Structure formats: structure tokens, C-alpha cells
Amino acid sequence: MRVTAAISPDPDDLFMFRALIEGLVDTRGLEFDVVTADTDALNRMAAGEGADINAISIAHYPKVAEHYQLFRHGASVGRGYGPAVVCLHGQAPETLAGARIAVPGLTTTAWMVLRMAIGEFEAVVTPIVPYSRTFEALRSGLVEAALLIHEGRLTYPDEGCELLLDIGEAWQGWTGGLPLPLGGNVVRRSLGPEVVGRIDGAVRDSIAHALAHREAAMDWLLARGVTLQSRDRLDRYLGMYANADTLDMGDDGCAAVRRLLDLGAQRGWVPATNVDFVGEHGPC
Length: 284
What we know:
Elements (H helix, E strand, L loop, with lengths): L1 E6 L3 H11 L9 E6 L2 H9 L5 E5 L10 E3 L5 E3 L5 E5 L11 E4 L5 H10 L3 E4 L6 H9 L4 E4 L3 H4 L5 E6 H8 L5 E9 L4 H20 L1 H11 L6 H11 L2 H4 L2 H17 L18
């Protein structure tokens, strides 16, 4: 049976799926067809036809929950860190509220949490592929600040930028220490429990293989030409977003997902949603 998987081209997603792409683990009789797209496109994809497995922003889950369940594995989780709001050195806006801020899309967790943190602002959607576009928008004066996810989170000092706000740090402060669940993988409900169970095991094994063979996985990522071509930076990035939480986000990760979506629903940004994870009975 062929299974489609739509993930981002970022190192953490490729790291997770490497063993399935390369046939390094038992696929439980499944053939995985993996395609990549940027975060906002993946969210829009899941809200439409969608793949059997779809990487999405956690904030977008309520809009696809009718058709998809969340995995406990495959998540990008920030513990005291997360997406960053930056500006050019010496050009910080007086306040982020009301400022023109480049954002990676209006479906992302980062965008939702930034709104919670600073109130309303003028969002300027700036595609993150190539990620240099965001820094070009800053230098041209199109925006006063930029919300960075993925690689830009590590490379902004090279672009003459300084940190204004780490939204993962802010989130941890106002939730009593919960991690920030940024992205996750969902699976189509219509596949049925038996197939979903096989997919669940195969993807989990792929993540475990990557963690157990981390150096080889990094070699593979660098050979593929991922944006972070510095091994040290790639190592740091994977340490942030492809780690033990990726194998299982844990009970506090589940609680953080529910808290995030409850806060979004209270503000009328997303529908109220009972979150159910693969392998669990009832809402998390």
C-alpha cells in the first residue's frame, strides 16, 4: 500500500523521514511517497485534499481535525525557546504592537502566539523559501520587524539583525513552564485504525533511527544541500527541533497543545477542538 507524506524541506522534517526515504527501517508493508512544501503551503494542503501524512502547524489543527488525527511523535517543540522576532541593528520599532512585521504565513503557530504576546500588528506575509526574502524585506524597509521560524532563527545575526522577542520564552512564562508545540504530523482518519497503526509504528521507528544514527543523518542532510550548511548550526538546529520530544512530545506536550488551541478558540481565531492523538482514546 502506498502512503503519501507531505513534509517541509527543513532539516528536522527530513531528519525524521530519512529512514523511510532510504529504506532503513521496517515499513510494515507500506511504501512512502514523500513530497516537500513550505509550512504555510502544508497547512493549506491539509485543509484541502491533503496527504495521508501531513506536517502542519499545531495552531492549524482545529481546521483539519475532522479528517486528521495528531501523532504524539513528529512534533517540533520549543522548551523555553521558539520563533524569534528580530529587527535590523539600531532600527527597533518603539513597540511591536501595530508594527509592520513579516510573518511566514497566517496559518502558523508562530503567528498565533505572536498575536497572543503583543496584540494586533500589521502582518506582511513573506514566504520563507528562500528564507533570504525575509531579510530582504527588512533591509528594504517593507517591514519593521520579522518573525523567524526554521533556519532564520539561527542565522539572523549574520544578517545584521538583533533579537526583540523569543515567543517560546514568552509562552513558557505565561503558561507556567509549558513547552511551545510548534508543528506536528497528522494522519488521515479515513485510512482506518489498522493502517494508521502501521503508519504510526513506521514513522516512530524512522525518528528513533535518526536519533540513534544522528551523525549519519547529519551527513545525509548536508549532502542534500539543506540551507544550514554549517555542521555546527545544523547540530544546534536538530538539538532544538529534532530530539526526544520529537520521538514523543510527552504529557506536558499534549497539555501544551490543548492549552494553545483553547487560547486560540477563546479569541475566536480557531474552532473549539477536542484533540485526540493516535493510539489514545478520547481527547488528550
